[in-house]
Amino acid sequence: xxxxxLLEIIKAIPEKPILTAFLVLVGLAIIILSLSFKxxxxxxxxxxxxxxxxxxxxxFDIAVIGILIYWLNENGEKRLRINMYKDEIDDFRLWESEExxxxxxxxxxxxxxxxxxxxxxxxxxxxxxxxxxxxxxxSNLNSANITHSNLVQCNLENARMNRTSFENSNLNQAxxxxxxxxxxxxxxxxxxxxxxxxxxxxxxxxxNAFLMEANLNGAxxxxxxxxNAxxxxxxxxxxxxxxxxxxxNVKTLHMAQFDDAIMAEIKQKYESLLIP
Length: 276
Description:
α4 (44-92) packs antiparallel against α5 (98-113). Helices cover 40% and strands 0% of the residues. The protein has helices at 2-12, 17-35, 37-42, 44-92, 98-113, 260-269. It is mostly helical. The mean pLDDT is 88. The N and C termini lie far apart (105 Å).
């Protein structure tokens, strides 16, 4: 019985890592101290000096290796968290629900905290969410649903937003320089002081949008719809593809800026739109 009990204890040792480490330490200590005993008695000071020298080297190794392991561990955990946030965005893609929208936004903000701004949001449902002050520069938002949302001062510079819907959203003072937004709907959107400089807005829909003091300098506006849009103080200088007929039914062009050629045509055909 005692023999069997002893065997059971021995077999259980590997299952307990702390106990195993302790037993190994005790065993090695007995062996090393036994072999070193004569040095303690015959050449104590010289032996202790060598031990202390080795101890200093060990401390240095522990410090360097410890820092390295800590750095690798932190970076590894950071990469795991980033991948987890991206995977969750993929999980909620195409799921049109309030929960999916808010959890996706949460993951976007967490990625921003890790300085990740280029995010794949293709076909994501983000309606009725708050993306104000979020950085989505160089992100891909093609065909995303971002209706009835707040994007005040949101950074969408160089972002891809083709066929995306921003209907009824608040994009006041958003940064959208060089964004790709062909076929995108900004219907009924608030876009006061939005920066769309050099953006690609081919066939974009600005129907009923509020574009007061918007910067559209150098934007490609070929086929863009400005039906009933408020363009007070908007800057259309250097715009590509813009013709006067696109502005025939806007609310106002008072104090809007245009290149000389198109301004002359507007004064000739739609002068009333320039009057406050």
